[in-house]
């Protein structure tokens, strides 16, 4: 089984760490890893600026919500975000009594179009969230950050999909100001997975220390389910091709053993306070294990991304610039998406559809997230054509996927 969405990072090594932790509940909420993980993350992402500090949360939506709350903005202040995003970005904005303003995207890096941004800024605009979609550096990042500085906008760079570590190196760090923040995610479908988890990078040390001081840890039951996740999904994935995994997946879901990535409350367009917590020590242990092999995984992602790039740049009129980028997913625009997905599924290859709606997931009511249909036509058009190819796979599997796309006309 190959899946872009379902546990793309997990290995038996991760499962074994989880199994051992299941028998050490005294390490679940607090432990020594809580202090070491922050330094390890700064080192892994080549963040050498000693003024920057990392604050850990249970989820990216919790990190964003608490940051927005801490800014103490007037109600209905505007937060500029791109269309072609997910509910985890929008719901915290609404929960904080702020107003999301959607900006259309460009087609090379699927990020905010600077020419569209100019038309959306008003005197009530206070925050700008710049999304690095699929881990691609936004085409107009420099222009947008300069524009934000000129208009006194607080900038939050959404690095949940991944990013180029050179962003924090001295030649580029001049773009970072005390009014800028960066958001990382360690959800199960991200480049690093602790099942749940997120980090906020800030140069405002006083603010960083306050952001989680009022937050509780998740319950022992919640942590237990998170620790169960990795061994269960490895059992499912390793037996899926012989049908046992499919049965196990249905069974585990039916008895509520697999903790949901998006809660039912969030699918209904409501911020879920159950995910507004601190990151517990048990999940930082899982994150540490993934950090140990992160460089190797990123090298492989770059190799697979380059394979896709070489093939599709020749066969499809496509302008994506991806060489040597360790993309979380390889985005591709196609005319016959359903046929491709069906053909791949028959071979137990499950391709992704980030994002098949301007604010994902597909079943989310757009009125609940204050999006007006037709307001961002480029993002809406891309949502109808996009598929995502997995990158954390072998060359052989990547070639199989290329052949599937070649066979579908």
TrEMBL record:
InterPro entries: DegT/StrS_aminotransferase, PyrdxlP-dep_Trfase, PyrdxlP-dep_Trfase_major, PyrdxlP-dep_Trfase_small. GO terms for biological process: polysaccharide biosynthetic process. The keyword Manganese does not apply. The keyword Transmembrane helix does not apply. Keywords: Pyridoxal phosphate. One of its GO terms (molecular function) is pyridoxal phosphate binding. Belongs to the DegT/DnrJ/EryC1 family. This is DegT/DnrJ/EryC1/StrS aminotransferase.
């Amino acid at each position: 089984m190959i899946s872009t969405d379902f546990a793309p990072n997990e290995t038996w090594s991760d499962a074994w760490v989880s199994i051992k932790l299941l028998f050490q509940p005294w390490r679940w909420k607090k432990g020594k890893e809580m202090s070491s993980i922050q330094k390890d993350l700064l080192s892994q992402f080549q963040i050498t600026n000693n003024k920057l500090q990392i604050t850990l949360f249970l989820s990216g939506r919790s990190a964003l919500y608490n940051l927005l709350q801490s800014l103490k903005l007037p109600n209905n202040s505007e937060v500029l975000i791109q269309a072609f995003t997910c509910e985890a970005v929008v719901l915290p904005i609404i929960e904080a009594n702020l107003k999301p303003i959607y900006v259309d995207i460009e087609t090379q890096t699927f990020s905010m179009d600077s020419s569209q941004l100019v038309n959306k800024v008003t005197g009530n605009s206070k925050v700008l969230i710049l999304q690095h979609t699929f881990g691609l550096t936004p085409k107009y990042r420099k222009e947008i950050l300069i524009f934000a500085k000129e208009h006194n906008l607080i900038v939050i760079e959404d690095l949940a999909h991944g990013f180029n570590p050179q962003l924090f190196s001295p030649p580029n760090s001049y773009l970072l100001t005390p009014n800028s923040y960066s958001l990382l995610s360690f959800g199960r479908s991200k480049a690093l997975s602790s099942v749940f988890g997120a980090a906020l990078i800030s140069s405002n040390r006083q603010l960083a220390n306050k952001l989680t001081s009022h937050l509780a840890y998740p319950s022992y039951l919640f942590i237990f389910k998170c620790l169960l996740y990795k061994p269960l999904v490895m059992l499912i994935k390793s037996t899926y091709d012989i049908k046992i995994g499919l049965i196990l997946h249905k069974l585990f879901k039916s008895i509520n053993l697999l903790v949901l990535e998006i809660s039912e409350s969030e699918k209904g367009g409501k911020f879920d306070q159950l995910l507004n917590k601190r990151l517990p020590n048990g999940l930082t242990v899982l994150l540490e294990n993934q950090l140990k092999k992160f460089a190797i995984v990123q090298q492989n992602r770059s190799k697979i991304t380059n394979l896709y790039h070489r093939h599709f740049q020749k066969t499809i009129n496509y302008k994506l610039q991806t060489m040597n980028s360790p993309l979380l997913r390889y985005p591709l625009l196609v005319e016959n998406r359903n046929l491709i997905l069906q053909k791949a599924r028959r071979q137990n290859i499950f391709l992704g559809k980030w994002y098949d709606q301007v604010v994902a997931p597909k079943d989310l009511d757009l009125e609940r997230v204050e999006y007006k249909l037709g307001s961002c036509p480029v993002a809406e058009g891309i949502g109808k054509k996009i598929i995502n190819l997995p990158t954390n796979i072998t060359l052989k599997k990547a070639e199989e996927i290329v052949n599937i796309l070649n066979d579908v006309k």
